[in-house]
Request: fold
Amino acid sequence: MTDSLPPEDPRDALIREHAARLEAQAGQIAAQDEQIAGHGERIAALEALVVQLREQLDAALRAASRNSGNSSMPPSSDDLPGRRPPARKERRAAERAERKRKPGKQPGSPGAAMRWERPDEVIGHFPQGDCACGADLSDAADLGVARSCQQEDVPEPQPSRRYQHDLHKARCACGRVHVAAHPAGVPDAPLSVGPRLSAMAVYLSVFQHVPVERAQALIADLTGGVVSAGFVHSCLGKAAGLAAGATRLIRTLIAAAPVAGFDETTLRSGPAGEKKYVHGAFTELYSAFWLGTRSLETMKEAGILPSFAGIAVSDRYQGYYSKTWQNLAGHQACAAHITRDFQDCAETYPGAAWPEQAMRSLRGLIRAWHAAREQGLAAISDGDREPLETEFRRAVTAGLAAVSRVPGPRNQVRQQPGRELLEFCKTRQADVLRFTTDTGVWPTNNISERGVRPLKTQQKISGRLTSDDVTQDRLDIRGYIDTARKHGLGAYEILHQLMTGNPWLPPARPISP
Reply:
């Protein structure tokens, strides 16, 4: 019977082998599914971590692309490692490489040339040595000047001189005895340092940003005077005290101005780890500084914004737009800052037309403002203003349609790049374009940026300033110097006058538009 059965089909064995293998794989898959199910929370955490790291990477890339050309960052930060320089710098570098511009003065730029002037001292030079005949040339007859040559130089450094002031007394015919008064700048002390040396210490430390130790060395090398670090600091305190009246007057004049610029910048002052801000208020004739935090309380303590009733020119920092300042006549948002922010949008959304359109219209309005101001006009003409304003409004509308708002609480949800800028330009259009209808209002806050820029230079050179009180003294002196220079006076000149006890006071007159 068995022999009568048909032979087994070889394919049956192959099918059984495949079935056994599939059964084994199914078991392995079931075990893996069970293992994966046990690590579900861990996988979810890893997925969340990937999303977080991707967001951090995107933020880092955006931060690395920010520079002075598309944000409010200072130009000094463009050279930091990992930073991409502004497009205009790359473009200019390429243009210079293409033109192979020669070093030195370029055509059209102002230059400086030495001219023949009346000399301060004439030094005669006569032939020396022997003539070919053997006679000594010192006995030769003088035939006059054959040629002259002038050389401009500084006099040889003179050692500091010690002056003794003897205060004489005299008896009047009536019998009363009188003693001479102390000269200006001479305190009632047996020993003191004169006003010129004190002014030099303040000049080097505050205006030229020279660290205290180097200021000591410079004074010693140039004058021979030996001064201590404590002396330099005491000069700062003395100068700030003497300038206190002028500082109060400057703040009052800024508060009374029709237009003033406001800006703030970080400064390392006080104990390590603390972040301080310097607030600045500026007009074309006055400058004032105040050290504190970035809070409304510090802005109140500075004493200008609470009573300021003019147009405040500033960036988009929300502190300047607080309802606390009830006396303000209005705002002017810095068009240069807004233009840089739109440049950031152009780089964030390549191919979008609205950022370029907004920048083009703003730059056109700024050029029209300068042209109107040069012609003495009170505002930009309607023919120049209206087409550019229409173009700007359309750019903002297109941007709002392209960059949607992320739902959620306004102060808790991060919006897409450019969304808050567009909303600001929409809701505060009058504060963005106010300069177009009044040439007395500056379109940009460049005057304030120039005012606070030296403080960053000071920080780069000197590092952290250890005392907030001394830092405020420096700031008061800086405002005093800047104000005097805006009136055409020299920094050392007014410091010397200050240290004699006769401070210069700015004229109390309104700012010319």
